């Protein structure tokens, strides 16, 4: 009986020790950071869908406003202010760019949102000439920042044939650069495309992983936790 109690006690202690290890792993700062990032990403996606629904509803309203403008023009009635109509369209475009910024999470997409916001301020709002001049100057500064200060999405590796691309680069841009035909249904960005392809193949992305897709070999060049930062794409030598 004493032996049985001892065995039960050992099993309980082993179970408790395993649970404590699992708890420590769960509470590790890197795991917590990854889970927090995942929750934040999920909230961003939910907000993006909410914004898209709102933009869709307001877009429908624009067509009704356009119908009223046509009727007013035909019946020679007082037409609504075109500046209000233009301001609404600009607002919807800014909303769409903001959704793209939440999805891509790149500096370029953030700058595009600011550019559209400034353009709306200059064109739709009737400000003074000084306001317009300041807006144009701000746009010029943003273009300069985008051209000279933002890190390029791609760079050449040690060999000339190496094509190392930022994971946030659109797959369409890669197709244009390599004259390839990677299916955009897998993802809009290179990282998303590779992640979904590996998921279908039952593989987990990690640093140095190589996989052949079509006539090219994809190599994960840099990762940040579970996020694919840079990918090397090289042609397969036949």
From TrEMBL:
<dbReference type="InterPro" id="IPR036318">
    <property type="entry name" value="FAD-bd_PCMH-like_sf"/>
</dbReference>
<dbReference type="Pfam" id="PF03471">
    <property type="entry name" value="CorC_HlyC"/>
</dbReference>
<keyword id="KW-0812">Transmembrane</keyword>
<feature type="transmembrane region" description="Helical">
    <location>
        <begin position="123"/>
        <end position="145"/>
    </location>
</feature>
<protein>
    <submittedName>
        <fullName>Transporter</fullName>
    </submittedName>
</protein>
<keyword id="KW-0472">Membrane</keyword>
<feature type="transmembrane region" description="Helical">
    <location>
        <begin position="85"/>
        <end position="103"/>
    </location>
</feature>
<feature type="transmembrane region" description="Helical">
    <location>
        <begin position="36"/>
        <end position="64"/>
    </location>
</feature>
<keyword id="KW-1133">Transmembrane helix</keyword>
<feature type="domain" description="Transporter-associated">
    <location>
        <begin position="156"/>
        <end position="237"/>
    </location>
</feature>
<dbReference type="GO" id="GO:0050660">
    <property type="term" value="F:flavin adenine dinucleotide binding"/>
</dbReference>
<dbReference type="InterPro" id="IPR016169">
    <property type="entry name" value="FAD-bd_PCMH_sub2"/>
</dbReference>
<dbReference type="InterPro" id="IPR005170">
    <property type="entry name" value="Transptr-assoc_dom"/>
</dbReference>
